[in-house]
Amino acid sequence: EESAKKVKLNGRVKLFKGETGLNEFASIACDTSLMAISGISALRPLMTNIRHAKNIALANKESMVTAGNFVLEEAKKYKTKILPVDSEINALYQLLVSKDFSKVYLTASGGALFNYKPRDLGKVCVKTVLSHPTWSMGRRITIDSATLVNKGFEVVEAHCFFNLPYENIGIVIHRESTVHAFVEFKDKTLFACMYPPDMRLPISFALGYPKRIDALKADNFKDKLTLSFEPLKQNQFPLLDIILKGAKCGGNSLPVLNGCDEVAVEYFLNGRIKFTDMYKAMNYIFTHYKPSRMSALDDVFYWDAWARERTREYLRSL
Questions:
Q1: How far is 255 from 303, CA to CA, in rounded Å?
Q2: Fewest CB within 10 angstroms: 30, 156, 177, 262, which?
Q3: What's the CA gap between 169 and 159, in Å, rounded?
Q4: By three-state DSSP, how is residue 185 classified?
Q5: CA 249 to chain centre
Q6: Exposed, middle or buried by CB within 10 Å (0-12, 13-18, 19+), for 100?
Q7: Would you state the pLDDT for residue 237?
Q8: How far is residue 180 from each of residues 108, 147, 158, measured CA to CA in Å?
Q9: What DSSP element (H or E) covers 103?
Q10: For 146-173, how does the pLDDT look when each residue is reduced to its tens digit (9 = 90+)?
Q11: Contact call for residues 226 and 176 (beta carbons, < 8 A)
Q12: 146: Cβ–Cβ under 8 A, 6 or more apart, which residues?
């Protein structure tokens, strides 16, 4: 609100301020909109925008992670097409033309701490964790890439977008971030979606759909292409394990875990806790929340607020 007051605009441009302005803006009828608000804050304007947009390019993953069934039911009701912008999920969207497949694989770079020993993780600083080897991303998603929480959320996205059983979604470590997803067909043929780690391509795909936009300059990355893949080691990323367990539990587990993660990452970025304390917080919340079914959208926000408050209480006690 304060920042908006400082913006000087001519009479031809309208400024939308605060939650009221955001809701008004989301209510504008359009062919295609881009939802790029971070965190669960995108959920209410997304639900509003579904009623007014023909296509929504969705760059926010938390709305699908915490309320995927509500979002998709609303989109079906208003015949709104939701197009994923998240690079791995966007890659699957492009690949899954044929329905005759048996499994999909999402790739993970492993983040900035992939080669660190567990005993050294408690000593890493924020700057080190934010030094992602291939992507230039926002601060929270870069931290979540190091813990692979982000990859866990993408597994949930794949489950929601494509109605895939969780056991048919795999994760493969791929440090170069050139292959974004694989589809394994029943004859064991693998199809891969490859492009440089540049978000302009999935964004342009979602904005131009069903046509393709020439968004990138010619790139000779294929001439110097090196691809390496390795299986995900068991227990190497304990936070990923918690997210996947929560996903299979269903109900309120994912709003709880997302709320906890948002608070824990914020505390780490502000230097208030160690990197390993994020796992402690997530593990504590996951073992102390009360599993519950969600029957309305307000349930998502209730459990999000519950998790945030409990996480803050726990982190203040460390």
A1: 6
A2: 30
A3: 8
A4: strand
A5: 19
A6: exposed
A7: 94
A8: 8, 18, 13
A9: strand 101-108
A10: 999 999 999 999 999 999 999 999 999 9
A11: yes
A12: 111, 112, 113, 129, 132, 275
Torsion angle of alpha carbons 117, 121, 127, 129, nearest 10°? 70
- Which one, of 40, 187, 150, 164, lies nearest residue 96 by Cα? 164
Whether the Cβ atoms of residue 78 and residue 50 lie closer than 8 Å to each other: yes
Strand-by-strand arrangement of the 53-58 sheet:
30-35, 53-58, 81-84
Q: How far apart are CA 62 and CA 84, in angstroms?
A: 12
Can you list the pairs that 161-164 forms with residues at least 24 positions away whose Cβ atoms lie under 8 Å?
161/64, 161/82, 161/84, 161/89, 161/92, 161/93, 162/92, 162/96, 162/104, 164/104
List, in order, residues 6 or more apart from 149 with CB less than 8 Å away.
239, 240, 243, 261
Altogether, the residues listed in the chain come to a count of 318
Residue range 235-273, pLDDT digits in tens: 889 999 999 999 999 999 999 999 999 999 999 999 999
Q: What is the DSSP letter of 168?
A: G
Beta bridge partners of 13: none
Give the DSSP per-residue string, 210-255.
TS----S----GGGG-----EEPPTTS-HHHHHHHHHHHH-TTHHH
Q: List Cα–Cα distances, 2 to 17, 18, 92, in angstroms.
A: 9, 10, 40
Cα torsion at 171, 174, 179, 182 (round to 10°)?
Answer: -30
Specify the range with the lowest mean pLDDT, choosing from 9-13, 48-52, 207-211: 9-13
SS3 annotation, 19-71: HHHHHHHHCCCEEEEEECCCCHHHHHHHHHHHCCEEEEEECCCHHHHHHHHHH
Cis, peptide link before residue 133, omega less than 30° from 0 = no
Q: How far apart are CA 17 and CA 247, in angstroms?
A: 35
- For residue 183, the Cα-to-chain-centroid distance in whole angstroms is 20
User: Up-side HSE of residue 24: CA atoms within 13 Å toward CB?
Assistant: 8
pTM of the model: 0.86
Place of tokens 């890439």: 145
